[in-house]
Amino acid sequence: MKIVKRERNKIQAEEIANQKAIMAQIRALFAARPLAYVDTYGCQQNEADSETIRGMLDEMGYAFTTDEFEADLIVINTCAIRENAENRVLGNVGALSHTKKAKPSQTIVFCGCLAAVPETVEKIRRSYPQVDLVFAPNLLWMFPELLRRVLTEKGRVFLTDGGDGAVAEGLPVKRDGTVKAWFPIMYGCDNFCSYCIVPHVRGRERSRDPEHVVDEARQLVADGYKDITLLGQNVNSYGAGLDENINFAGLLRQVCEIDGQFLVRFMTSHPKDASVELFRAMADCERAAKQIHLPFQSGSDRILRLMNRGYTHQDYMAKIAQAREFMPDIAITSDVIVGFPGETEADFEDTLRLIENARFDGLFTFIYSRRPGTPAADMEDTVTHEEKHRRFDRLIELQNSISDEQHSKHIGKAMTVLVDGESGDARYPLRARTNGGRLVHLNGDLTLVGSFVEARITHCNSWSLFGEA
Ligand code: SAH
Ligand code: SF4
Ligand code: F3S
Predict the structure, then answer these.
(1) Contact (Cβ atoms closer than 8 angstroms) between residue 254 and residue 210
(2) Closest ligand 1 atom to Cα of 189
């Protein structure tokens, strides 16, 4: 196997050219277009990776299907963030023994974050013989070379140590949507929150060059995309380690200067690095959506310390107050974990208090899940399963009442929304988003998909707004 060559954390251009040559060779192997099924789990980073996988498969001559029995190639792009995500993936991979039995020539690929977890890789090796190729997310750029080995040598291939990772530019991308596009501006994470597996499977934090980011954004706008999301595990630390003197606020300004009618969003932001400079840039730029996803994880200073988050309850509240000073209408959403090892009732009440005071527009609630190899996995977990679920329910109940209240503030208002697709609901056939990213079901004509329209909000529920175009 070739050694990954690097120059300032980059995969060299000739390496990428080599992968492109291999894509052409694979294409030449087939008389008719074979069919590929790409199944994606996890976050938008994984969705973006799957768009690159589809781009590469397209160049290798594959057409696409969603029927596992018909597929010549199945790619499972996995997520390792919580145990239930892992169990769901393994259940589905287990079921592929049937599709492979029905079609023995089928090739099965297991990639994404679980492919970099040694315990899981061992399980695949021992108990899932139907899987032909396993590779870590940092080796995505080598997919053509690895697939060629499987197709021509007929053995199983495992390449699961992705190392620190590097930036690969110039791989083909086949995007799913026509209105919304997301693209990574950086990879990996250096924060090592004590519960989190991401830094262990995605490697060290590294940023793409700003020219590449701005060029890609310009191309997306030219192609008609209207809702662009810049992705990274912690976009606020964009630019660290680059030769250019640039930070995330500067990059956001550059992207927002591109000509055209579009909105720029970004995720995720880490509270410790969300700066006044960023809030000012968001407020200054008309094309920057007034929305921020700012996970707080816990309201207890003791737990935040154990989590290695680098801020306190008070710091967090000050951050969101600052954001609202710059943008009074900003939509703020967050993530929270309940049942971190040793979380007491008092710790949990600090979390409830934070939620009560923060008035989030939306909140994603997770029950702590032990991840192998993380520091929290070795902390003593004294909270019972039942207690974690009780806390989870109390938290959901509180946030639902806040979400209802936040949503009902919009009733009767007129606002510009972006229609990004069809809703599947006959009475409100259009799906749209407000500038703050809230979901709106609209009644209006299907020809409006892809345009910004003026809408009046008529009513709401806990999840979305309803209105008329
Ligand atoms: N980089 C992002 C989050 C990525 S993971 C950030 O730091 O904000 C998305 C969310 O999953 C996290 O915000 C956290 O709330 C949750 N999460 C991560 N690891 C978890 C674990 N071991 N158990 C439960 N929830 C977890
Ligand atoms: Fe995980 Fe923390 Fe990095 Fe987010 S910032 S990916 S929670 S380690
Ligand atoms: Fe999951 Fe990997 Fe994303 S663990 S949440 S797919 S970075």
Answers:
(1) yes
(2) 1
